[in-house]
Design brief:
heterotrimer; A mainly alpha; B alpha/beta; C alpha+beta; A: mainly alpha; Formate dehydrogenase/DMSO reductase fold; 74% helix; 0% strand; B: alpha/beta; 7-stranded mixed beta sheet; 6-stranded mixed β-barrel; 26 helices; 29% helix; 18% strand
Chain lengths: 371, 860, 242
């Protein structure tokens, strides 16, 4: 019975990956990127939003795993291995999104042959490459023995670099004053950390549920601890989120923040605010809910849904208001709704994540605390 | 399909190019030969290579710039085409032309998409569905030229054998001056009176005013670079007709040196750069013109050197007061005082303000500014004020302003055309047999010259009433039409109320269409013949004026044709003549054989030689040094075709003052010329001039008939049911309604102010749209008393409230995959002509397009 | 090394768009992509209303954000000041589009000139299919009127998955010709030249008029300058009133 379920699960995930491959074929070799709801106004859409979502979650997971490794808080050790493996699985999802976003992914080797050190995107690419190597390295170490503090610190630094560089990437361009690199360099790591906490809660508690491993007392304390930390990070995120709303929505010039102001009335924004922040924060502030497994799982899931919507809202904020010659004949704001193919990008990325994770869960004893 | 070797870089490539070219040409010729020429029993060596001109290697690859002519609009600019390996790659202005020079308007580039339009018909075709109608698929199938020509000749012979050659009809569309071969000579020799041109759907009323004031039936040149005031009337020279390239080139200077005012209900491309925009109510141009004339006279701003003055120098033109004509001594004009007494004395700016809905101050300001600039003050007559029911008088009124300020034939004013020296083709008279002579005596199918259609092109019935030919055919009045040929025309699209043409064409038992694309007209044809594209594939010439010069610019075959095309005006009539000769009637061929090559003295032996010899014949005075008469001088034919254009001598100013081709030789404010011709027309019909005017739907009676004056516009539709006046205009990318199958047309459609790419829009003022709940981008249905169309709403401040502006050019339901939404079935956008009822300015015969109908707008 | 710049005289400009259509032609730019473009505005309300037209193209910024952001140096500066793109190195990330404040970069979302691959004629046997027409005339190499000259420094037709934009017609400059939009402008509203030559035509105009550039405050140092006004209309002197 169990074997059938597992096979069904693998089948489902492989189907998701297959859909991703079909998308890759149709977009890269067949019809082209017209399958996405992209135009020369909306040059970046859901695949990039999904990429940001996954990559920041991955960086955030590195922050979580550094708690025991770098900061020596030993009671976090039971989740160290799962977190470290999740970092890798989530990063694969991020790469999947990126692959399906790039127009000519087959040419990324020019990163090495023709590097532009002035480009945030070059740095980001290199940092993510480095990040993957470091993650694989530290996971291998972890699997066999304790990760050295040195490697842990290095992983943390690279994770900080990637998440902040992404803020640099979005916030630098003069063309999109709606973004501020200063703000994003804080907001991205913070929200990545929040997403990571949610993911750890979700995956760990799911493990206990599906593996039918009852929670020990230590586990209970740990997850309660994590829940509180999660609540704190969510609250902090809400504060930043509201300040971004206030600054962009009320006190700035309409021309430069027009896109964001327009997005304030969008479903994505409200999904991010209410479903992603307000409701889970309220849930976590209630001890009865916080302490219940279902409460933590629900709050974590809602936060991740909201985060995803928030990433999309943010990407769109910089693009929905056409300017200059591309505004000719366009309405003041262009509307966006993902196409089925863009949804498939996300679906296949998620399938990759879960597939890699499931392989790890079943083969690598992720519940083990390192020696 | 022949294959080419792959492109290689550098010198190897150049080498291969040469190799390729010869190989490709050989293959092409071989295929043409098997396809058509051999079947016709002729072996023809294309003259193309022999005529290759000085090659110029540029950064654009190895190619040559070859002289050509653009007929995308009737500017008729001289161009050069960059030809690479027999393939047209780009187009530019021909620097040898003194009219347009290097300047090229935007629409010329679309010619490339026209010549390589995949939807061009590449072979003759015949209809296999005998039923004809808008909803009947003709089920065209390819046939050989031999079969097509044979069938056509059979049908013509049938008419001849039955002594009913007057039932043959030739419909002309866009032409070159090779036209008479097909339009005139062939129709006459077959024996029919029915050669019907498109001219009256073009701008005959625009020539009416100038003719009945200064005796000039033609478009004027405007000396904008030396003008101090340019007052435009429904003319949009930066976007449409004529000399768009030339005016675009100099406008930036004109806006410096002249005040520019434009009367037009829509903010046109030219209005965008104007000092004054006078968005008058459609159909009131005549009122504004006479009010300006009133101010010019009361303010003493007429140009005394031209018009003359009161004997004692005291201005007696006082509002409301009659003037004794004895007191005024006119110089080069006729009837200024009569005009004042009959029409102008009460036509104050206050009066005009009520009619035109313009501010009084603006009318005065423009009138005074215009007068102060005399004589360098242009009153620029476009089609807008005059292609209206009763538009003939507005045409006169607007042009008469040039007379008051002495701008006629003057520096910084308006000019007629310069002299040119092309010659007419040999006369056909000796080749008309008895059948032809009898046939030719019948009345024309368009009813010109009848009481209700004076069409006064210089004489009663001298002009064409194009759009009325549909009614002639439908009612078999004066007779039925059994065999008809149309070329480069599309009356089922280009004429107002085209549904009449659909029925008329369906009624013609045998209809041939010579065309590049299977158009709405083709839909009713029995035979389609693939036409050459004028700019790249045809021998011909046209004449145009501008910048104080006249040029004669040549068309030549300069590329490798893709399909089995033949030249409409020369090759096809020759081939038909050959077939007729085969069937026992050789007069036409015998006539064509008199078009001898002036260089060699040889008579043509096939259609290709004929096309070339006919052109050399007509232009001999331009290129033959022995026959030199003036303008550019050439050493011979080869030099002329290499240059591509002949330029006249510069315009001689003021030579026509008191030497005009009017009755009085003066500029006529009181038109003795019109009086004469109208009286002749009345006499012919045993009636009075007043009765003629009544029948023709004009309001003037008595002496008023002979002076420029304002007549209330005759607009169809009840104001309550149809609250908006329809404003028709032309796109700057229109190539006379033939560019809608070009993707560039749609991708750049917003070059027309207020328009939208890939849409056909009805432009409505936001304050009119709001109460109707109509928003930008809404699908809307426009309905007039005579038809309706569906298009997209565009809310735009540049439209006069109470009017809806809609561009002509889209709404094709055939023509091609881009022009139509579903080829042969569903139009893309809507054609303005579906809204406009078939109405006429009957004095000129013109079809009315502007201020002709009211419409309503609803969400579709 | 020259430093190329363009001056656009808005008074000469008649808003006809010949520049943009000619550019399509010269550079084999697919439909929907505008290397040469415009910003228009209908200002005012009836009857006090005018239409204004500002031609736009790549500004070839001296401090180009697109070049700075490009990870693989596909977008790069040439010594003569041209902002050039190398589609071979382009990974299609579209960060340059995201970075360009002037919205002049376009992405090839699909294979170029798709129109010319359609195998269906509208009248079987009587007309060509677009594919057949393109094949017969030009071996199916883009549009039938495809300009081979463009192929000297860029692929004649750029493939799917890379961006493209105006190159100041670098292929023409290379052989001593001015950009095609300049040549094709019927009004001579575009003047091209070398800023490093003190007496070049562009420098003469820049010294005579108050030039301005788009979004100068960003510090991108565009090399496309505008002078004079699209509508230099006269008006009646007034002090206004209350």
């Amino acid at each position: 019975m169990k074997a059938i379920k597992i096979q069904l699960w693998y089948g489902l995930l492989l189907l998701g990956i297959l859909l991703g491959l079909i998308t890759a074929y149709r977009v890269l070799i067949g019809t082209g990127f017209v399958l996405y709801a992209k135009t020369d106004i909306l040059v970046w859409t859901m695949p990039i939003a999904a990429y940001v979502f996954f990559s920041l979650t991955s960086s955030g997971l590195a922050f979580v795993s550094s708690i025991p490794v770098v900061f020596g808080i030993k009671r976090y050790q039971p989740i160290e291995k799962r977190t470290a493996f999740l970092e890798i699985a989530v990063l694969f999802a991020a790469f999947t999104c990126l692959l399906l976003h790039l127009g000519s992914p087959q040419k990324v080797y020019y990163y090495l042959f023709s590097p532009n050190l002035a480009s945030p995107l070059w740095w980001l690419g290199m940092l993510y490459g480095l990040y993957l190597i470091v993650l694989l390295l530290s996971f291998r170490k972890m699997h066999k023995a304790q990760v050295s503090k040195g490697l842990g610190v290095f992983t943390l630094i690279v994770a900080i670099a990637t998440s902040t560089a992404l803020g640099w990437l979005f916030g630098l361009p003069d063309a999109r004053p709606v973004f501020s690199a200063n703000f994003l360099a804080m907001y991205f790591p913070l929200t990545g950390f929040g997403s990571a906490l949610a993911a750890v809660l979700l995956f760990s508690l799911a493990y206990h549920h599906f593996a039918k491993v009852p929670l020990s007392g230590g586990d209970r304390n740990l997850y309660e601890d994590l829940g509180k930390l999660f609540g704190f990070v969510m609250a902090l995120t809400l504060v930043f989120f509201l300040w971004r709303t206030i600054v962009g929505g009320t006190s700035a010039t309409a021309v430069e923040f027009g896109g964001f102001r327009h997005m304030l009335s969008s479903g994505w924004y409200h999904l991010a605010l209410w479903v992603g922040l307000v409701i889970p924060i309220l849930m976590i502030t209630m001890p009865a809910v916080r302490n219940a497994t279902w409460g933590k799982i629900t709050a974590a899931a809602l936060f991740l849904v909201g985060m995803f919507a928030g990433r999309l809202e943010m990407v769109l904020s910089g693009l929905v208001m056409p300017t200059g010659p591309k505004a000719e004949g366009q309405p003041p704001f262009v509307s966006y709704w993902p196409t089925i193919w863009e949804v498939l990008v996300f679906v296949s990325a998620l399938a990759v994540l879960l597939f890699v994770y499931t392989l790890g869960e079943r083969n690598l004893k992720l519940s083990e605390a390192p020696e | 399909m022949e294959m080419k070797p792959n492109q290689k870089e550098g010198t190897l490539k150049d080498f291969l190019n040469d190799y390729k070219m010869s190989r490709r040409s050989f293959m092409k010729r071989a295929s043409v030969a098997t396809g058509g020429a051999i079947a016709l029993g002729t072996t023809v060596k294309p003259t193309l290579r022999a005529l290759a001109q000085a090659s110029e290697t540029t950064g654009s690859g190895a190619g040559e710039w070859k002289a050509a002519t653009c007929q995308g609009c009737t500017s008729w600019c001289s161009k050069q085409v960059y030809v690479v390996d027999g393939r047209a790659v780009k187009v530019r202005g021909n620097p040898n032309s003194k009219v347009n020079g290097e300047a090229s308007c935007p629409r010329v580039h679309l010619a490339l998409q026209q010549v390589y339009d995949p939807d061009r018909i590449k072979t003759p075709m015949k209809r296999t569905n005998p039923k004809k109608g808008r909803n009947e698929d003709p089920k065209f199938v390819p046939i050989s030229w031999d079969e097509a020509l044979g069938t056509i000749a059979d049908k013509i012979m049938e008419l001849r054998n039955n002594n009913e050659t007057h039932k043959y009809m030739l419909m002309r569309g866009r032409y070159s001056y090779m036209r008479d071969v097909l339009y005139d000579r062939m129709t006459k020799i077959i024996g029919s009176p029915n050669n019907i041109s498109h001219s009256a759907i073009c701008a005959e009323a625009e020539k009416f005013g100038p003719y009945y004031t200064e005796g000039y039936w033609g478009y004027r040149q405007y000396d904008v670079q030396r003008a101090r005031y340019i007052l435009l009337w429904g003319a949009d020279p930066l976007a449409a007709n004529r000399q768009v390239s030339y005016y675009s080139a100099v406008w930036g200077d004109a806006v410096d040196s002249a005040t520019i005012a434009i009367a037009e209900p829509r903010l046109s491309a030219t209005a965008a750069k104007a000092d004054e925009w006078l968005p008058l109510k459609p159909g009131t141009d005549g009122a504004l013109a006479v009010a300006i004339a009133h101010v010019l006279l009361t303010e003493g701003l007429w140009y005394k050197e031209f018009v003359g003055d009161f004997i004692d120098g005291e201005n007696r033109f006082v509002s409301g007061q009659y003037v004794d004509s004895e007191l005024f001594e006119e110089k080069h004009t006729n009837g200024i005082v009569t005009w004042w007494n009959l029409e102008l004395k009460d036509k104050t700016p206050e009066w005009a303000a009520k009619i035109t809905d313009l501010p009084v101050e603006q009318i005065k300001r423009v009138a005074v500014g215009y007068g102060q600039a005399a004589p360098h003050a242009i009153s620029w007559l476009g089609g807008g004020p005059c292609m209206q029911v009763r538009g003939g008088y507005a045409s006169m009124a607007v042009h008469a302003l040039n007379g008051i300020v002495g701008a006629v034939d003057n520096v910084g004013g308006t000019q007629q055309s310069n002299k040119e020296y092309t010659t007419k083709f040999p006369k056909p008279d000796d080749f008309l047999d008895e059948i032809a002579k009898a046939g030719k005596k019948h009345k024309k199918i368009d009813h010109r010259g009848r009481l209700e259609f004076p069409a006064l092109n210089k004489k009663p019935g001298g002009g064409v009433v194009t759009n009325n030919a549909a009614d002639g055919i439908l009612n078999a009045d004066p007779n039925e039409i059994k065999v008809a040929i149309g070329y480069m025309n599309n009356f089922a699209f280009s004429c107002p109320q085209p549904e009449r043409w659909e029925r008329a064409l369906a009624k013609i038992p045998f209809l041939v269409h010579i065309t590049t694309n299977a158009s709405e007209f083709s839909w009713f044809a029995d035979i389609l013949l693939p036409d050459t594209h004028h700019m790249f594939e045809k021998w011909g010439y046209v004449k145009a004026i501008g910048n104080g010069y006249r040029h004669v610019t040549l068309m030549q075959p300069i590329i490798e044709p893709v399909g089995d095309y033949k030249i409409d005006e020369t090759e096809i009539p020759w081939l038909i003549a050959e077939k007729l000769a085969e069937k026992g009637f050789s007069n036409l061929l015998d006539h064509y054989k008199t078009y001898i090559d002036p260089e060699t003295g040889k008579a043509p032996t096939n259609e290709k030689e004929f096309a070339l010899y006919a052109l050399k014949y007509a232009t001999q005075n331009l290129w033959d040094p022995a026959k030199y008469k003036g303008g550019d001088k050439f050493s011979g034919w080869n030099e002329l075709i290499k240059a591509g254009v002949w330029n006249s001598d510069p315009y001689p100013y003021r030579k026509k003052w008191s030497n005009m081709k009017t009755k009085t030789k003066k500029f006529e404010f009181y038109s003795e010329t019109l009086k004469d011709v109208l009286e002749k027309h009345a006499e012919k019909h045993n009636t009075t001039v007043d009765h003629v005017l009544e029948v023709c739907n004009y309001l003037a009676r008595g002496e008023m008939v002979f002076v420029p004056h304002y007549e209330e516009a005759f607009i169809a539709g009840d104001e309550k049911e149809y609250p908006f006046i329809h404003v028709d205009y032309k796109s700057r990318l229109n190539r006379e309604g033939r560019s809608a199958n070009c993707t560039w047309y749609h991708d750049f459609k917003d070059l027309d102010p207020g328009d939208v790419p890939w849409q056909d829009v009805a432009k409505i003022n936001p304050r009119d749209a709001r109460p109707l709940g109509i928003k930008n981008g809404d699908k809307v249905k426009l309905t007039s008393p005579s038809g309706s169309l569906t298009c997209t709403a565009s809310l735009w401040e540049g439209v006069r409230p109470g009017t809806i502006a809609k561009c002509y050019g889209q709404g094709h339901w055939a023509y091609g995959r881009v022009a139509s939404r579903v080829f042969g079935k569903v139009p893309r956008g809507g054609s303005s002509n579906d809204l406009i009822p078939a109405q006429y300015d009957r004095l000129s015969g013109s079809t009315a397009f502007y201020a002709t109908t009211r419409i309503k707008i609803e969400k579709a | 090394m020259p430093k190329y710049a363009m001056v656009i005289d808005l008074q000469r400009c008649v808003g006809c768009g010949a520049c943009s259509i000619a550019c399509r032609n010269e550079n084999n730019v697919p439909d929907g992509i505008y290397w040469s473009n415009k910003i228009t505005e209908t200002a005012g309300t009836f009857p006090n209303v005018r239409f204004h037209y500002l031609p736009t193209l790549c500004n070839h910024c001296s401090d180009a954000p697109c070049v700075e952001g490009c990870p693989t140096k596909a977008m790069h500066k040439l010594d003569n000041g041209i902002t050039m793109h190398d589609p071979d190195k382009c990974i299609g990330c579209r960060y340059c589009q995201y970075n360009c404040p002037y919205e002049v970069i376009y992405f090839n979302w699909q294979d170029p000139h798709k129109f010319w691959r359609n195998p269906k004629p509208v009248i079987e046997g009587g007309t060509s299919s677009p594919k057949e027409m393109a094949q017969t005339v030009n071996n199916g190499n883009g549009a039938p009127y495809s300009n081979p000259g463009r192929g000297k420094t860029l692929p004649e037709n750029r493939p799917k998955g890379v961006v493209e934009k105006c190159t100041f017609c670098d292929h023409r400059i290379k052989v001593g010709e001015i950009p095609y939009c300049v040549e094709a402008c019927p009004a001579d509203a575009r003047i091209f030249g070398d800023l490093d030559k003190p007496d070049s035509k562009v420098n003469r105009l820049l010294g005579k008029f108050k030039p301005y550039r788009l979004k100068e405050r960003l510090g991108t140092e565009p090399n496309v300058y505008y002078i004079r006004s699209f509508n230099p209309a006269h008006y009646q002197r007034t002090k206004g009133g209350i």
